[in-house]
Amino acid sequence: MKKNIGNIDRTIRILLGLVIGVLGVVYHTWWGLLGLIPLVTTFISFCPIYSLFKISTVEKKQTSKEA
User: Fold this and answer.
1) How many domains does the chain have?
2) Is the full-model pTM beyond 0.85?
3) Do 4 and 57 contact (CB within 8 A), yes or no?
4) Structural domain contains residue 39
5) Region 40-63 average pLDDT
6) Which of 2, 22, 38, 55 has its CA 20 to 30 A from that of 61?
7) Is residue 37 part of a domain?
8) Quick check: is 27 in a domain?
């Protein structure tokens, strides 16, 4: 699996996963388990949906040619 989740995307996914998980606990619903999806994809740095659409938020390294 090639990484397709960048640093900013990872931060957003962590926050979103934690918020969804906490809301699930507060309201005593199973919907809080959905918060695991962004957390798992964050820790493996790969999103299957991104790969289907050929999306990558990883910054591309710029190569500089010195003369």
Assistant:
1) 1
2) no
3) yes
4) no
5) 89
6) 38
7) no
8) yes
Structure tokens at 32: 């809080």
CA distance 32 to 46: 21
The range of the structural domain enclosing residue 11 comes to 1-31
Residue with tokens 């957390």: 39
Name the residue with higher pLDDT: 52 or 62: 52
Question: pLDDT at position 61, please?
Answer: 74
- Closest of 29, 24, 57, 23 to residue 42, by C-alpha: 57
Alpha helix (H) ranges present in the chain?
Answer: 7-26, 36-44, 48-52
* pLDDT grade for 31, boundaries at 50, 70 and 90: confident
Under 8 Å between Cβ of 40 and 62: no
Residue type for position 9? D
Of 34, 3, 38, the residue nearest 21 (C-alpha): 34
The answer to whether residue 13 scores a pLDDT higher than 90 is yes
2 is a domain residue: yes
